[in-house]
Amino acid sequence: MLRRTVLASASLLAAGALLLTACSGGAEPAPTVTGEPDPDASVAIRLVLEPGNLDIRRTAGAALDQILVDNVYQGLVARTAEQEIVPALASDWTVSPDGLTYTFTLREGVAFHDGQPLTPQDVVWSLTTRKNTPEWRDSARLANVETIEAEGQDITLTLTEPDSSLLWNLTGRAGIVLKEGDTVDYNTAANGTGPFVLERWREGDSITFARNDAYWGEPAQVAEVVFDYIPDNQAALGAALAGEVDVVTGFDANLREQIEANGEFALELGQSTDKGTLAFNQTSGPLADVRVRQAIRQAIDHDAIIEALASGQTQYGPIPELDPGYEDLSDVAPYDLEAARALLEAAGADDLELTLTIPNFYSTTIPQILVSDLNEVGITLEVESVDFSTWLNDVYINQDYDLSFVLHTEARDFENWANPDYYFTYDNPEVQDLYAQSLAATDEEEAADLLQEAARLVAEDHAADWLYNGASVVAVGTNITGMPSINVNERLNLAEIAKSNG
Amino acid sequence: MIRYALIRLGLLLLGLFVASVLIFLTLRVLPGDVAQLIAGVNSNPEQLAAIRERLGLNHPLPAQYLDWIGGVLRGDLGTSLLTGTAVVDELAEKAQVTVPLGILSLVIAVLISVPLGVLSAMRRGRADGTALSVGAQTLAAVPVVWAGMMLVVVFAVWLGWLPAQGFPRAGWADPWAALRSLILPALTIGIVEGAMLLRFVRSATLQAVGQDFVRTAAAKGLTRDAALIRHGLPVVGLSVITVLGLQVAGIIVGAVVIEQLFSLPGIGRMLVADVGARDLPKVQGELLALTGFVLVVGFAVDLVHRIIDPRQREAA
Q1: With an 8 Å Cβ cutoff, is A203 touching chain B?
Q2: Which of A1, A3, A4, A9 to mutate to test the interface with B (most CBs of B within 10 A)?
Q3: Do A392 and B41 touch (CB under 8 A)?
Q4: Shortest distance, CA B2 to any CA of chain A (angstroms)
Q5: Which of the pair, B202 or B221, is modelled with greater confidence?
Q6: ipTM rounded to 2 decimals
Q7: What is the mean pLDDT of chain A?
Q8: pLDDT, average across residues A480-495
Q9: pTM across the whole model
Q10: Confidence band (pLDDT; 50, 70, 90) for B3?
Q11: Between A71 and which of A196, A453, B113, B288 could a Cys-Cys bridge form, CB atoms 3.0 to 4.6 Å apart?
Q12: Which of A140, A244, A396 sits opposite B163 (nearest CB)?
């Protein structure tokens, strides 16, 4: 009953949205920043997905990385929005030529939010505990690390074999530095070293950060950041127009005119590593036939999807443009209905009926396009919209599905194509071997080339279809500067955000 | 009267017990579990097992039920699997939004329905009476969400008088700001519920017009309207109280939808989030508290009805 009410209201909301579209006028936006940045300002940022709890050690989900990493918690190294690896708690690092020894120089004068100074021992403890506690997220990413030792301010990681992904992994959860034996309640509180202190979490509403005045680096430009969790895009639009939020992330680019109407917001489209992935269960049945998978890919009008979303770009392989190993693979499965029909006929798969399982928080745009595109080549698609928990159970764990759609936001997650047990059900030893070689490479370029080779194989096997490479759609108030626009679904570094009073 | 109250109380407790079992069992039918949500994609079975162990999800169902209900009897509605906070605390915090929202909605519904309902009955057959009645029929059919959207467009986006969404972070520290943020949501529920109630008030009034005691009063020299207002309305009032009791459940359901729409951090929104997160102990506690509330309101309405309606007392 509850779910039906909510579902019904969601469709009504969509109807209401259309009406709202009809009512709004269209004025020219004038995005200019006037006035001085206000150091006492409070910035309100609309986010979509609220985390279930704040335990960055154990709980999965991009909602946690998005706000906590960089802003509250830090590692030895960090990454920029452009995905470049830069120093953080370590001022500097060196890698031995054989790729087996990483030496980091820990900054001095860093303190946790509770006032305790950061010691080299905290780093050793954090990384060692992460590595040895399987229940902690990403502990396996430190599998190649044999020892973690400190001498003075130098932290040395010794590896059993080269790992070209190690530095990158250290910029994420695997590298987070916590206080040794901290007694903070990680579920609802935090104690890090970042430019912001977690001040308050009002469940179901908002999370508030305050500036860390004792920060070791350049202090934040605003006194306070408030993340307002507003799942619905229309409600977010209303909040923006009523001046209740300064920045709207995860926005719908189709609503550009409405939010820019009064000139107080400008829409920014940044690149992202979001991959709208249509997974094929290829263990058995018609989708085990590569011709059927190819037919489905060639029957989908990818340009029409980009047009419908009014953002993003096409992507025909597993690696998006921001990640190493990217290559334009559009030649592998071009839109061609005739070819699709011929492939289906050759596979003896006419009158195919398939089910698409999709978590219910995605909009209906994608399923609608898929149903109509596949119908063109004689495939009947039934859409099953389920809540995320059900999706995890049926699709992710039990692999009980035909087609599934999920937006995979993680950067550099090619490993899933090299894991035959993953829900993608893709098993190609050649790809697994190339991926292992890429990890073992000591040269960045070589590692990327090997990934590129593997990615082409995955695309040519039609292991899935990549419907689009999403964009970060962010509406930014014209009095806001320093708001990141790249990959904000995954990481939202607010060290430089500023708000002017003009 | 005391015997009646005791029997009614017994039924209330039985109802609560049945509800607790149903709530517990139906939630277990849902696919998916909180351990998987915590572990997320890219997790392995060992991680899952460790989380289940830590959260006590590997105990058998009857043990879990007894554990829960035992806590409830001691006044402990359980704790969230995700955050470890007590359900009672969360309910108390979220009630600061939902309870005022409910009361405000109810007041608006009554303010709309009672005068207009009586008026529409008294004007039956005339153009304005018909217009009122048709208007109410139409409003009652309006989906709550759509009504809310329209109110936001007019009062928040166009006129800028009231906030479009959210609740002040400081809560009731600034009562005016808090109240302002509840006006549009309460209007949304109040108008739709009020329109439904209006139809009820109208038919109850029409029924009262036909009652012997109203006709007698009229025969004694009062005008028809005066007879209705002096002798008929108290009876209408009684049935309105009963229906209001039933409306409470409707308002809770309305709150679930409206809190989503207006991003209000209330019980309804918390419930939806917790179901999605499969935080079952929390959902159980919340549902039991809500069910208990509706049952207690029904109990109270029955008792009040019995106390003030002389006819029911005589019948007993």
Answers
A1: yes
A2: A9
A3: yes
A4: 37
A5: B202
A6: 0.79
A7: 91
A8: 94
A9: 0.85
A10: confident
A11: A196
A12: A244
